[in-house]
Amino acid sequence: IRLVRIAQSSKPGIQRIIDKVAGIFTWIVIAVALSTFVYWFLVARVSLDLAVLFMASVLVVACPCALGLATPIAVIIGFGKAAETGILIKNAEVIDKISKIDVVVLDKTGTLTIGRPRVAAIRSFVENIGEEEILRLAAICEKRSEHPIALAIIEEAERRRLLIRDPDNFENIPGQGVLAWIGENLVAVGNEKLMRNIEALISEDISRVAEELMRQGLTTVYVAINRRIIGLIAVGDIPRPEAKEFINYLHSRRYKVIMLTGDRESTAKAIASKLGINEVFAEVSPEDKAEIIERLRREGFVVAMIGDGVNDAVSLSRADLGIAMGGGADIAREAGDAVLMRNNLLGVIDLFELIKSIRRKIYQNIFWAFIYNIILIPLSAGVFYGSGIYLRPELAGFAMAMSSISVTLSSYTLKRWRSPTSGKYQVSKESIN
Protein backbone atom coordinates (compact mmCIF):
# COMPACT_ATOMS: atom_id res chain seq x y z
CA ILE A 1 0.00 0.00 0.00
CA ARG A 2 2.86 2.36 0.87
CA LEU A 3 4.57 1.76 -2.48
CA VAL A 4 1.32 2.31 -4.38
CA ARG A 5 0.79 5.63 -2.58
CA ILE A 6 4.36 6.72 -3.36
CA ALA A 7 3.86 5.82 -7.03
CA GLN A 8 0.53 7.65 -7.16
CA SER A 9 2.18 10.80 -5.82
CA SER A 10 5.07 10.68 -8.29
CA LYS A 11 4.93 12.50 -11.62
CA PRO A 12 5.32 11.15 -15.15
CA GLY A 13 7.18 13.34 -17.65
CA ILE A 14 3.97 14.61 -19.22
CA GLN A 15 2.82 15.96 -15.84
CA ARG A 16 5.95 18.08 -15.50
CA ILE A 17 5.23 19.59 -18.94
CA ILE A 18 1.61 20.27 -17.98
CA ASP A 19 2.72 21.91 -14.72
CA LYS A 20 4.86 24.34 -16.71
CA VAL A 21 2.03 24.98 -19.18
CA ALA A 22 -0.42 25.59 -16.31
CA GLY A 23 2.02 28.05 -14.74
CA ILE A 24 2.31 30.01 -17.99
CA PHE A 25 -1.42 29.63 -18.64
CA THR A 26 -2.25 31.42 -15.37
CA TRP A 27 -0.33 34.54 -16.43
CA ILE A 28 -1.87 34.38 -19.91
CA VAL A 29 -5.37 34.35 -18.35
CA ILE A 30 -4.51 37.33 -16.15
CA ALA A 31 -3.22 39.18 -19.23
CA VAL A 32 -6.36 38.27 -21.21
CA ALA A 33 -8.58 39.45 -18.34
CA LEU A 34 -6.79 42.81 -18.08
CA SER A 35 -6.86 43.20 -21.87
CA THR A 36 -10.59 42.43 -21.83
CA PHE A 37 -11.20 45.18 -19.28
CA VAL A 38 -9.06 47.68 -21.18
CA TYR A 39 -10.79 46.92 -24.47
CA TRP A 40 -14.36 47.13 -23.19
CA PHE A 41 -13.89 50.13 -20.90
CA LEU A 42 -11.42 52.25 -22.87
CA VAL A 43 -12.01 51.19 -26.47
CA ALA A 44 -15.61 49.97 -26.65
CA ARG A 45 -16.68 52.56 -24.05
CA VAL A 46 -19.10 50.27 -22.21
CA SER A 47 -20.04 50.92 -18.59
CA LEU A 48 -17.53 50.19 -15.85
CA ASP A 49 -19.69 47.45 -14.31
CA LEU A 50 -19.98 45.58 -17.65
CA ALA A 51 -16.22 45.84 -18.31
CA VAL A 52 -15.54 44.50 -14.79
CA LEU A 53 -18.12 41.74 -15.38
CA PHE A 54 -16.30 40.55 -18.53
CA MET A 55 -12.92 40.68 -16.77
CA ALA A 56 -14.25 38.75 -13.76
CA SER A 57 -15.87 36.13 -15.98
CA VAL A 58 -12.53 35.51 -17.75
CA LEU A 59 -10.72 35.11 -14.43
CA VAL A 60 -13.38 32.80 -13.02
CA VAL A 61 -13.95 30.59 -16.07
CA ALA A 62 -10.26 29.86 -16.75
CA CYS A 63 -9.47 26.25 -15.84
CA PRO A 64 -5.80 25.69 -14.91
CA CYS A 65 -7.12 23.32 -12.27
CA ALA A 66 -8.56 21.04 -14.97
CA LEU A 67 -5.16 21.00 -16.66
CA GLY A 68 -3.49 20.26 -13.34
CA LEU A 69 -5.91 17.41 -12.59
CA ALA A 70 -5.70 15.82 -16.04
CA THR A 71 -2.66 13.65 -15.28
CA PRO A 72 -2.62 12.96 -11.50
CA ILE A 73 -6.25 11.87 -11.28
CA ALA A 74 -5.69 9.38 -14.13
CA VAL A 75 -2.48 8.14 -12.47
CA ILE A 76 -4.15 7.65 -9.08
CA ILE A 77 -7.09 5.72 -10.48
CA GLY A 78 -5.01 3.80 -13.05
CA PHE A 79 -2.35 2.69 -10.54
CA GLY A 80 -5.06 1.70 -8.08
CA LYS A 81 -6.60 -0.42 -10.83
CA ALA A 82 -3.17 -1.94 -11.51
CA ALA A 83 -2.89 -2.94 -7.83
CA GLU A 84 -6.34 -4.56 -8.02
CA THR A 85 -5.16 -6.48 -11.09
CA GLY A 86 -2.05 -7.73 -9.27
CA ILE A 87 0.51 -5.27 -10.65
CA LEU A 88 2.51 -3.04 -8.33
CA ILE A 89 3.79 0.04 -10.18
CA LYS A 90 6.46 1.78 -8.14
CA ASN A 91 7.00 4.93 -10.17
CA ALA A 92 4.78 7.05 -12.42
CA GLU A 93 7.63 7.35 -14.93
CA VAL A 94 6.59 3.86 -16.10
CA ILE A 95 3.88 5.70 -18.07
CA ASP A 96 6.55 7.46 -20.14
CA LYS A 97 8.83 4.44 -20.47
CA ILE A 98 6.45 1.76 -21.73
CA SER A 99 5.42 3.68 -24.83
CA LYS A 100 9.09 3.87 -25.91
CA ILE A 101 10.08 0.22 -25.34
CA ASP A 102 11.33 -1.63 -28.43
CA VAL A 103 13.35 -4.49 -26.85
CA VAL A 104 12.11 -6.94 -24.21
CA VAL A 105 14.81 -8.98 -22.46
CA LEU A 106 13.78 -12.02 -20.41
CA ASP A 107 15.52 -14.19 -17.86
CA LYS A 108 14.90 -17.93 -18.32
CA THR A 109 14.72 -19.75 -14.99
CA GLY A 110 11.74 -18.63 -12.93
CA THR A 111 10.62 -16.12 -15.56
CA LEU A 112 10.05 -17.98 -18.83
CA THR A 113 10.00 -21.31 -16.99
CA ILE A 114 8.01 -22.42 -13.95
CA GLY A 115 11.11 -21.94 -11.81
CA ARG A 116 10.49 -25.26 -10.10
CA PRO A 117 12.92 -27.56 -11.87
CA ARG A 118 13.04 -31.24 -10.93
CA VAL A 119 16.00 -33.60 -10.85
CA ALA A 120 15.71 -35.64 -14.03
CA ALA A 121 18.94 -37.67 -13.93
CA ILE A 122 22.07 -38.28 -11.83
CA ARG A 123 25.30 -39.60 -13.29
CA SER A 124 28.31 -40.87 -11.33
CA PHE A 125 31.84 -40.84 -12.74
CA VAL A 126 33.55 -42.52 -9.76
CA GLU A 127 33.10 -46.24 -9.20
CA ASN A 128 32.70 -46.24 -5.40
CA ILE A 129 30.42 -43.15 -5.22
CA GLY A 130 26.76 -43.80 -6.03
CA GLU A 131 23.98 -41.53 -7.21
CA GLU A 132 22.55 -40.98 -3.72
CA GLU A 133 25.92 -39.91 -2.30
CA ILE A 134 26.35 -37.39 -5.14
CA LEU A 135 22.84 -36.08 -4.47
CA ARG A 136 23.47 -35.91 -0.70
CA LEU A 137 26.69 -33.91 -1.09
CA ALA A 138 25.05 -31.55 -3.58
CA ALA A 139 22.07 -31.03 -1.26
CA ILE A 140 24.34 -30.16 1.67
CA CYS A 141 26.15 -27.59 -0.47
CA GLU A 142 22.91 -26.09 -1.76
CA LYS A 143 21.11 -26.07 1.61
CA ARG A 144 21.57 -22.32 2.12
CA SER A 145 20.96 -21.34 -1.50
CA GLU A 146 17.61 -20.03 -2.77
CA HIS A 147 18.26 -20.75 -6.46
CA PRO A 148 15.52 -22.84 -8.13
CA ILE A 149 18.07 -25.51 -9.13
CA ALA A 150 19.26 -25.72 -5.52
CA LEU A 151 15.69 -26.17 -4.33
CA ALA A 152 15.18 -28.96 -6.89
CA ILE A 153 18.27 -30.81 -5.61
CA ILE A 154 17.19 -30.44 -1.97
CA GLU A 155 13.63 -31.52 -2.80
CA GLU A 156 14.89 -34.68 -4.51
CA ALA A 157 17.24 -35.47 -1.57
CA GLU A 158 14.35 -35.06 0.88
CA ARG A 159 12.14 -37.24 -1.30
CA ARG A 160 14.77 -39.98 -1.06
CA ARG A 161 14.99 -39.40 2.73
CA LEU A 162 18.71 -38.56 2.65
CA LEU A 163 20.31 -36.93 5.68
CA ILE A 164 21.16 -33.31 4.79
CA ARG A 165 23.40 -31.67 7.38
CA ASP A 166 24.50 -28.04 7.31
CA PRO A 167 27.74 -27.25 5.45
CA ASP A 168 30.65 -26.10 7.61
CA ASN A 169 31.18 -23.13 5.33
CA PHE A 170 29.32 -21.87 2.28
CA GLU A 171 29.86 -19.39 -0.56
CA ASN A 172 27.35 -18.56 -3.27
CA ILE A 173 28.94 -17.49 -6.57
CA PRO A 174 26.21 -15.81 -8.68
CA GLY A 175 25.94 -17.17 -12.18
CA GLN A 176 28.20 -20.15 -11.41
CA GLY A 177 27.14 -22.19 -8.38
CA VAL A 178 28.19 -22.80 -4.78
CA LEU A 179 31.28 -23.83 -2.85
CA ALA A 180 31.03 -25.49 0.56
CA TRP A 181 33.29 -27.15 3.10
CA ILE A 182 31.96 -30.48 4.34
CA GLY A 183 34.39 -31.70 6.97
CA GLU A 184 37.82 -31.43 5.37
CA ASN A 185 36.52 -31.62 1.81
CA LEU A 186 35.83 -28.69 -0.51
CA VAL A 187 32.70 -29.54 -2.50
CA ALA A 188 31.71 -27.52 -5.55
CA VAL A 189 28.28 -27.68 -7.21
CA GLY A 190 27.75 -25.57 -10.30
CA ASN A 191 28.15 -25.07 -14.02
CA GLU A 192 31.13 -25.48 -16.32
CA LYS A 193 32.40 -21.98 -15.55
CA LEU A 194 32.69 -22.81 -11.85
CA MET A 195 34.54 -26.03 -12.67
CA ARG A 196 37.04 -24.07 -14.78
CA ASN A 197 37.51 -21.50 -12.04
CA ILE A 198 38.37 -24.15 -9.43
CA GLU A 199 40.53 -25.95 -12.04
CA ALA A 200 38.46 -29.15 -12.04
CA LEU A 201 39.13 -31.22 -15.17
CA ILE A 202 36.11 -31.98 -17.38
CA SER A 203 37.12 -35.07 -19.34
CA GLU A 204 35.77 -35.94 -22.79
CA ASP A 205 33.57 -38.68 -21.29
CA ILE A 206 32.04 -36.27 -18.76
CA SER A 207 31.56 -33.62 -21.44
CA ARG A 208 29.85 -36.13 -23.76
CA VAL A 209 27.37 -37.19 -21.04
CA ALA A 210 26.62 -33.54 -20.20
CA GLU A 211 26.05 -32.65 -23.87
CA GLU A 212 23.67 -35.59 -24.31
CA LEU A 213 21.56 -34.44 -21.34
CA MET A 214 21.60 -30.81 -22.44
CA ARG A 215 20.35 -31.73 -25.90
CA GLN A 216 17.25 -32.95 -24.07
CA GLY A 217 16.76 -29.42 -22.70
CA LEU A 218 18.10 -30.30 -19.25
CA THR A 219 20.43 -28.13 -17.17
CA THR A 220 23.53 -29.97 -15.97
CA VAL A 221 25.13 -29.28 -12.60
CA TYR A 222 28.59 -30.68 -11.94
CA VAL A 223 29.54 -32.00 -8.48
CA ALA A 224 33.23 -31.96 -7.55
CA ILE A 225 35.17 -32.90 -4.40
CA ASN A 226 38.57 -31.30 -3.91
CA ARG A 227 38.60 -30.21 -7.57
CA ARG A 228 37.74 -33.69 -8.88
CA ILE A 229 34.40 -34.10 -10.68
CA ILE A 230 32.56 -37.08 -9.22
CA GLY A 231 29.24 -36.72 -10.98
CA LEU A 232 26.60 -34.49 -12.40
CA ILE A 233 22.95 -33.82 -11.78
CA ALA A 234 20.58 -33.00 -14.64
CA VAL A 235 17.71 -30.73 -13.75
CA GLY A 236 14.72 -30.06 -15.96
CA ASP A 237 12.42 -27.05 -15.94
CA ILE A 238 9.37 -26.58 -18.15
CA PRO A 239 8.20 -23.33 -19.76
CA ARG A 240 5.37 -21.52 -18.02
CA PRO A 241 2.00 -22.45 -19.55
CA GLU A 242 1.44 -18.80 -20.50
CA ALA A 243 4.99 -18.17 -21.83
CA LYS A 244 4.22 -19.06 -25.46
CA GLU A 245 1.16 -16.77 -25.53
CA PHE A 246 3.20 -13.97 -23.99
CA ILE A 247 6.01 -14.30 -26.54
CA ASN A 248 3.42 -14.31 -29.36
CA TYR A 249 2.00 -11.07 -27.92
CA LEU A 250 5.45 -9.44 -27.93
CA HIS A 251 6.08 -10.53 -31.52
CA SER A 252 2.66 -9.26 -32.61
CA ARG A 253 3.57 -5.84 -31.17
CA ARG A 254 6.92 -5.97 -33.04
CA TYR A 255 9.10 -6.01 -29.95
CA LYS A 256 12.59 -7.44 -30.30
CA VAL A 257 12.69 -10.40 -27.84
CA ILE A 258 15.93 -11.62 -26.21
CA MET A 259 16.50 -14.36 -23.63
CA LEU A 260 19.38 -14.18 -21.13
CA THR A 261 20.46 -17.13 -19.00
CA GLY A 262 23.41 -18.54 -17.13
CA ASP A 263 22.60 -22.01 -18.52
CA ARG A 264 24.53 -23.74 -21.26
CA GLU A 265 23.72 -22.67 -24.80
CA SER A 266 22.21 -26.01 -25.83
CA THR A 267 19.82 -26.00 -22.85
CA ALA A 268 18.87 -22.37 -23.41
CA LYS A 269 18.21 -22.91 -27.12
CA ALA A 270 16.03 -25.94 -26.40
CA ILE A 271 13.71 -23.77 -24.28
CA ALA A 272 13.93 -20.80 -26.68
CA SER A 273 12.94 -22.92 -29.67
CA LYS A 274 9.82 -24.14 -27.85
CA LEU A 275 8.76 -20.55 -27.17
CA GLY A 276 9.71 -19.00 -30.52
CA ILE A 277 12.58 -16.84 -29.22
CA ASN A 278 15.29 -16.41 -31.85
CA GLU A 279 17.94 -14.42 -29.96
CA VAL A 280 19.57 -16.09 -26.94
CA PHE A 281 22.55 -15.15 -24.77
CA ALA A 282 23.61 -18.20 -22.75
CA GLU A 283 26.27 -18.85 -20.08
CA VAL A 284 26.16 -15.22 -18.97
CA SER A 285 26.96 -13.97 -15.47
CA PRO A 286 24.95 -11.25 -13.70
CA GLU A 287 27.62 -8.77 -14.83
CA ASP A 288 27.32 -10.04 -18.42
CA LYS A 289 23.53 -9.58 -18.29
CA ALA A 290 23.92 -5.99 -17.13
CA GLU A 291 26.52 -5.32 -19.85
CA ILE A 292 24.21 -6.71 -22.55
CA ILE A 293 21.46 -4.37 -21.30
CA GLU A 294 23.87 -1.42 -21.38
CA ARG A 295 25.06 -2.34 -24.88
CA LEU A 296 21.51 -2.46 -26.20
CA ARG A 297 20.85 0.97 -24.70
CA ARG A 298 24.04 2.37 -26.25
CA GLU A 299 22.81 1.09 -29.61
CA GLY A 300 19.73 3.26 -29.19
CA PHE A 301 17.22 0.66 -28.01
CA VAL A 302 14.82 1.33 -25.13
CA VAL A 303 14.97 -1.86 -23.06
CA ALA A 304 12.53 -3.60 -20.73
CA MET A 305 13.97 -6.38 -18.56
CA ILE A 306 11.82 -9.09 -16.96
CA GLY A 307 13.42 -11.24 -14.28
CA ASP A 308 12.96 -12.82 -10.89
CA GLY A 309 16.27 -13.75 -9.27
CA VAL A 310 19.23 -12.28 -7.42
CA ASN A 311 21.14 -12.69 -10.70
CA ASP A 312 18.69 -10.32 -12.41
CA ALA A 313 18.72 -7.47 -9.89
CA VAL A 314 21.48 -5.47 -11.57
CA SER A 315 19.93 -5.93 -15.02
CA LEU A 316 16.52 -4.86 -13.74
CA SER A 317 18.00 -1.65 -12.36
CA ARG A 318 20.08 -0.97 -15.52
CA ALA A 319 17.18 -1.44 -17.95
CA ASP A 320 14.97 1.48 -18.92
CA LEU A 321 12.08 -0.49 -17.45
CA GLY A 322 12.55 -3.31 -14.94
CA ILE A 323 9.66 -5.74 -14.38
CA ALA A 324 10.10 -8.23 -11.53
CA MET A 325 8.19 -11.47 -11.05
CA GLY A 326 6.41 -11.39 -7.70
CA GLY A 327 7.49 -14.91 -6.75
CA GLY A 328 11.18 -14.08 -7.19
CA ALA A 329 13.90 -12.81 -4.88
CA ASP A 330 13.32 -9.75 -2.68
CA ILE A 331 16.23 -7.86 -4.27
CA ALA A 332 14.71 -8.35 -7.74
CA ARG A 333 11.39 -6.93 -6.55
CA GLU A 334 13.21 -3.96 -5.04
CA ALA A 335 15.11 -3.31 -8.28
CA GLY A 336 12.07 -3.47 -10.58
CA ASP A 337 9.97 -0.47 -11.62
CA ALA A 338 6.93 -2.76 -11.60
CA VAL A 339 6.22 -6.05 -9.84
CA LEU A 340 3.85 -8.79 -11.06
CA MET A 341 2.35 -9.89 -7.75
CA ARG A 342 0.56 -12.84 -9.36
CA ASN A 343 3.85 -14.18 -10.71
CA ASN A 344 2.43 -14.67 -14.20
CA LEU A 345 3.88 -13.36 -17.47
CA LEU A 346 0.43 -12.39 -18.75
CA GLY A 347 0.61 -9.66 -16.12
CA VAL A 348 3.08 -7.88 -18.43
CA ILE A 349 0.38 -7.76 -21.11
CA ASP A 350 -1.99 -6.25 -18.53
CA LEU A 351 0.69 -3.75 -17.52
CA PHE A 352 1.34 -2.64 -21.11
CA GLU A 353 -2.36 -2.40 -21.98
CA LEU A 354 -3.33 -0.61 -18.76
CA ILE A 355 -0.55 1.96 -19.15
CA LYS A 356 -1.72 2.50 -22.75
CA SER A 357 -5.24 3.19 -21.38
CA ILE A 358 -3.86 5.57 -18.72
CA ARG A 359 -1.88 7.52 -21.33
CA ARG A 360 -4.91 7.71 -23.61
CA LYS A 361 -7.04 8.97 -20.70
CA ILE A 362 -4.44 11.62 -19.78
CA TYR A 363 -4.44 12.95 -23.35
CA GLN A 364 -8.24 12.94 -23.42
CA ASN A 365 -8.31 14.91 -20.15
CA ILE A 366 -5.81 17.45 -21.45
CA PHE A 367 -7.78 17.81 -24.69
CA TRP A 368 -11.05 18.51 -22.87
CA ALA A 369 -9.34 20.93 -20.47
CA PHE A 370 -7.99 22.91 -23.41
CA ILE A 371 -11.33 22.77 -25.26
CA TYR A 372 -13.09 24.22 -22.22
CA ASN A 373 -10.65 27.10 -22.10
CA ILE A 374 -10.60 27.71 -25.86
CA ILE A 375 -14.42 27.95 -25.98
CA LEU A 376 -15.26 29.56 -22.64
CA ILE A 377 -12.56 32.22 -22.31
CA PRO A 378 -13.59 34.05 -25.55
CA LEU A 379 -17.24 33.62 -24.55
CA SER A 380 -16.52 35.12 -21.11
CA ALA A 381 -14.48 37.97 -22.66
CA GLY A 382 -17.58 39.09 -24.56
CA VAL A 383 -16.50 38.11 -28.06
CA PHE A 384 -20.14 37.21 -28.83
CA TYR A 385 -21.66 40.07 -26.82
CA GLY A 386 -22.91 41.73 -30.03
CA SER A 387 -25.13 38.65 -30.59
CA GLY A 388 -26.41 38.87 -27.04
CA ILE A 389 -24.35 35.87 -25.89
CA TYR A 390 -22.02 36.23 -22.93
CA LEU A 391 -21.20 34.47 -19.66
CA ARG A 392 -21.91 36.05 -16.29
CA PRO A 393 -19.38 35.37 -13.46
CA GLU A 394 -21.73 33.02 -11.59
CA LEU A 395 -22.23 30.89 -14.73
CA ALA A 396 -18.51 31.12 -15.46
CA GLY A 397 -17.82 29.73 -11.98
CA PHE A 398 -20.23 26.85 -12.63
CA ALA A 399 -18.58 26.14 -16.01
CA MET A 400 -15.13 26.19 -14.40
CA ALA A 401 -16.27 23.69 -11.75
CA MET A 402 -17.79 21.48 -14.43
CA SER A 403 -14.47 21.35 -16.28
CA SER A 404 -12.75 19.86 -13.22
CA ILE A 405 -15.67 17.53 -12.55
CA SER A 406 -15.69 16.30 -16.17
CA VAL A 407 -11.95 15.56 -16.05
CA THR A 408 -12.41 13.66 -12.78
CA LEU A 409 -15.39 11.66 -14.07
CA SER A 410 -13.54 10.91 -17.29
CA SER A 411 -10.61 9.53 -15.28
CA TYR A 412 -12.94 7.39 -13.18
CA THR A 413 -13.90 5.46 -16.30
CA LEU A 414 -10.52 3.71 -15.82
CA LYS A 415 -12.26 1.86 -12.98
CA ARG A 416 -14.16 -0.02 -15.69
CA TRP A 417 -10.93 -1.18 -17.36
CA ARG A 418 -10.87 -4.96 -17.76
CA SER A 419 -7.79 -7.13 -17.99
CA PRO A 420 -7.36 -8.56 -21.51
CA THR A 421 -5.95 -11.72 -19.89
CA SER A 422 -8.69 -12.09 -17.27
CA GLY A 423 -9.22 -15.72 -16.27
CA LYS A 424 -5.83 -16.83 -17.59
CA TYR A 425 -3.85 -16.41 -14.38
CA GLN A 426 -4.58 -19.75 -12.82
CA VAL A 427 -1.86 -22.30 -13.54
CA SER A 428 -3.09 -25.84 -13.08
CA LYS A 429 -1.19 -28.34 -10.94
CA GLU A 430 -1.10 -30.66 -13.93
CA SER A 431 0.78 -28.11 -16.03
CA ILE A 432 3.36 -27.65 -13.26
CA ASN A 433 3.76 -31.38 -12.72
Describe this structure in words.
By secondary structure, this protein is α/β, with parallel strands linked by helices. It has 19 helices and 13 strands. The strands form two sheets. A seven-stranded mixed β-sheet has the order 1-13-12-11-2-9-10, sandwiched between helices. The chain has a six-stranded antiparallel β-sheet with strand order 3-8-7-6-5-4.
Give structural attributes:
6-stranded antiparallel beta sheet, 53% helix, single chain, 433 residues, alpha/beta
Give the averaged pLDDT, no decimals: 85
Overall number of strands: 13
Question: What is the global morphology?
Answer: rod-shaped
> Radius of gyration over alpha carbons?
31 Å
- The portion of residues assigned to helices is 40-55%
The major pleated sheet works out as:
7 strands, mixed
Instruction: Supply the number of helical segments.
Output: 19
- Helix/strand-derived category reads alpha/beta
- Spatial sequence of strands, sheet with the most strands: 1-13-12-11-2-9-10
Q: Give the uncertain stretches in residue-range form.
A: 425-433
